Amino acid sequence: MPHEPQPQPPDELDAAAVRTWSSLALAALDRAREDIDAINVYPVADADTGTNLYLTAESADRALDAAGTAASLGQAVRAWAHGALIGARGNSGTILAQLLRGVADVLDDEPAGRGPDRLLAQALTRAAQEAYEAVAHPVEGTMLTVAAAAARAAETAAGAAGAAAGSVADVARAAYDGARAALDDTPRQLAELGRAGVVDAGGCGLVAVLGALWQALSGQEPPAAEAVRGRGTGPVPASVPQQQRQCDAHDEPDGPAYEVVYLLEAAEEAVAALRGRLDGLGDSLVVVGGDRLWNVHVHVDDPGAAVEAGVVAGRPYRIRITHFGDERRRAARGECAQRAVVAVVPGEGLAGLCAEAGATTVLTPPGRAPDPGELVDAVRRAHAREVVLLPGGADQRAVAAAAAERARADGVRVAVIPTRSAVQGLAALAVHDPEATFDEDVVAMTAAAGATRYAELAVAERQSFTSAGICQAGDVLGLIDGDVAVIGSGLADTAEAVLERMLGSGGELVTLVLGPQAPDALAARLEAYVQHGHLAVDTVVYRGGRHSAPLLIGVE
Hints:
By secondary structure, the protein is of the alpha/beta class. Helix content is about 50%, strand content about 20%.
């Protein structure tokens, strides 16, 4: 829970004021996030805008705190903007990150002759400009409109005050008032908002951030009458009736099925081509950042293609893929899910498969465990009172346990299923029953995972001693339940040897997860092998996608 510091001496635009602004903004968004989530209609009614803004601001505040109290104004705003960039969540959080970057672009460069009032006005103007440029197809009646109105009001106030006698607090108040007026008008600009009888959720969060700016510079709190009713801050205009703030339970909206977000290391010219490629795949495209580090956000039907476009442009990482179906249905009914599943998966194909089954996924390439913060973020994105967490392997269970403890502190009931392989996670997800009691569901999923023997085929990188003998570089290793059991020269022959050992003790279902380089002929050969020697055993085949192992095998 963020703390609220006492404001710094008013009317000073320095590093201390930025730290105060950040802390006050984080506290404001924390108080308002549930109410902002409840009015989230556009671009997707998935009830998470308030949470996404809060998580983005939390990442920014953490980076600013790490910069230390000795940081200059320029160093402070750069750290703040960088923290928002690497932690941006959702469409609204990504735009907020670009707004902070625009502020930093001006405040990091303080030429003589500009008073603090002019400096702040120019910073807000640059922020609005950069945010519009980051969005592929800007729409009025959104957070962008609110940012532009705030900038215009700030420029007017700075110009009226004059270079010598201007008050930076007055400019901040003008920006805040301009943003509130623009927010009040959003239902008349955007049809989706007008039908639902709500203001724009992202714009509502931005008003809270600008209210924190005015408070940091003036020492005065935004009037309580302007706060979200029942929460304490995050203004929603009084013209929006209380009973209309929740999304109407209308038909599920059309649009792409997945949200894809990732950080990308790439040159600016490569990002220009990436924008064009992603724009052809979906909508809600926002690409923010610079200096070879970017945050990419897009809604698509083919998440693999969106990630692949990032691979062509540079190096994508911290990849998050979210399926909208369940979130849209919950938002249309105006409810938080009772239970959700969060799955750690080692391949893009598996991420899509689990997302289609309703799970919130965390994609982690083999050899890299997620940090607890990534899993906590996924639990929050699941937006449920109860969460079943499926770690991707035995080496990730400690991280999952740490994330579960943090999530429980937020009031979420969390259980960690002790899976040791992605195929055990698939088995557990297959028996997940949200209608059962939490304990019954956890027991059934644990039993399904435990009843699934798992194997993985990998290629040896060097000569080494194994439990099956000495292997040479290039040998194919068949690991059963984590131990090397077979050493072979080819993928197919080694896989058959592994299957023979695993099916020797019985089984009803074989699951094959093929890596990106595995040919379709391998699946056909292994299916025929199982059918020939074990007539009563069924086989299912999935594509693991990029990052997955050459072959994963599960036997239930």
